[in-house]
UniProtKB/TrEMBL annotation:
The keyword Repeat does not apply. It comes from Kribbella antiqua. Residues 12-403 form the Major facilitator superfamily (MFS) profile domain. The chain crosses the membrane at residues 12-30, 50-71, 83-101, 107-128, 140-162, 174-192, 290-309, 315-338, 381-400. Its main location: membrane. This is Putative MFS family arabinose efflux permease. GO terms for cellular component: plasma membrane. It comes from the Bacteria. It is found in: Cell membrane. InterPro entries: MFS (IPR011701), MFS_dom (IPR020846), MFS_trans_sf (IPR036259), MFS_Transporters (IPR050171), Sugar_transporter_CS (IPR005829). One of its GO terms (molecular function) is transmembrane transporter activity.
Length: 408
């Protein structure tokens, strides 16, 4: 690309659309595990303790959280594209390890690599889209990005559920992951273009950069909107870690077959994914704060409904509501971080936010697994529902509206 980079969705539609497709492949890599892996832990590796069965989510969450932080820093230092390509290279062995794993340790190793893959690729596609669109359509951009990723999670979860039902838990469900990794690496290497110049164009000469330590402190603790977003992101993925690890076990314990479990496992991210197309754009019109607060409270109510339900129809309603609440929160939190962080340190702020957000996977696996072992799955779900409600109240009381229109 030559000349001055142009900001905006229309001016960068081809690259933006390509990055949406790449992020769908990133989501598919995650989706291959959503239904099958908790059941693999129980049925193939005979892990009876919930805490032990959820170690794959704990490993994934910790590694992804740390990788998010470095993805932002490396994107500022080396450029976005090299980080994206590196993420796909690291993701290539993941489905093969899951297919061939003779022990649970291999599954943990695969999820360490998956955490690095997701941290590098998903973080970088987020940063690149923010670079391209500029400030006016940031919510829409994040809605499209997260929708692509989580619709792919849903579609792959449903597909793997049916494949597992028809052909067994291995290898058929994970062959999808092999195809996703190969295609993602090819597109990222050959077709995706660097976008760091767009961020520098938006920054101009009006803003000074911050040290990485200052960005971490501001995003995590001192800046009210950024720190409120960080805690809400952590709690959001805490309840997603619960859903990923324990919902399939809960549903099968009530006699549901793998096809229905796959449908429930897909419905939640499908509603989440598709609805983000509306909520991201809506946040550009009405602002970020109340979508985030309302979404967290809706998630809390949905989790409570999961806990009290005992049949397929009740869980259909509950996971649909959980998906709607998550859709209100997920792209809006990223847009809020993009609103507040200046272009010169935005990539690092996104990395810090995603450090906290995806640390929620590990926190959810550890907390939910421990409580489920001591008092059962319903108690674990009630506990996480209460934490989610408190998080929504924190946003209500501490966060200010970040949308640029509020500054006019």
């Amino acid at each position: 690309m030559t000349g001055t980079p142009q900001l905006g969705l229309r001016a960068n539609l081809a690259q933006f659309s390509l990055l949406v497709a790449v992020n769908a492949l990133v989501g598919g890599m995650l989706g291959q595990e959503r239904v099958v892996l908790p059941l693999l832990a129980e049925r193939t590796f005979h892990l009876t303790a919930y805490t032990g069965a959820l170690t794959f989510i704990l490993a994934f969450g910790l590694v992804k959280a740390l990788t998010n932080f470095f993805a932002g820093t490396w994107s500022d230092r080396f450029g976005r594209k090299p980080v994206l390509v590196a993420g796909w290279l690291i993701g290539l062995p993941v489905p093969l390890l899951l297919i061939w794993a003779p022990t649970w340790g291999w599954v943990i190793a695969a999820n360490v690599l998956l955490g690095v893959n997701q941290g590098l690729t998903w973080s970088t596609t987020v940063i690149m889209k923010i670079d391209l669109v500029g400030p006016a359509r940031r919510g829409l951009a994040m809605g499209l990005n997260e929708a692509a990723g989580y619709v792919a999670v849903a579609a792959t979860a449903m597909a793997t559920g049916y494949l597992a039902d028809a052909y067994g838990l291995r290898p058929a469900p994970f062959l999808l992951g092999v195809a996703y990794a190969a295609l993602g690496l090819g597109l990222s290497t050959l077709v995706v273009r660097e976008t760091r110049a767009h961020a520098l164009q938006e920054a101009g000469t009006t803003h000074h950069g911050l040290t990485t330590r200052a960005v971490f402190t501001r995003t995590s603790f001192t800046e009210p909107a950024l720190s409120s977003a960080s805690q809400a992101g952590l709690v959001n993925n805490l309840n997603d870690g619960l859903a990923w690890g324990l919902f399939p076990i809960l549903f099968t314990s009530h006699g549901l077959g793998l096809a229905k479990v796959g449908l429930l496992g897909a419905l939640y991210p499908a509603v989440w994914g598709f609805t983000q197309l509306a909520t991201g754009s809506l946040s550009d019109r009405i602002g970020r704060k109340w979508l985030i607060a309302g979404g967290m409270l809706l998630q809390a109510a949905a989790l409570a409904l999961v806990a009290v339900s005992t049949n397929f129809a009740g869980w259909i309603v509950a996971v649909t509501a959980l998906g709607l609440g998550t859709a209100a929160v997920y792209p809006t939190l990223l847009a809020a971080v993009g609103d507040v962080a200046q272009p010169t340190w935005r990539a690092r702020a996104v990395g810090v936010y995603r450090l906290w957000r995806d640390g929620g996977f590990a926190a959810g696996a550890l907390l939910a697994g421990t409580i489920a072992d001591l008092w059962g799955i319903p108690t674990a779900i009630w506990t996480v529902a209460a934490i989610t409600a408190i998080s929504g109240l924190v946003v209500t009381l501490r966060m200010y509206e970040t949308h640029p229109r509020s500054f006019r």
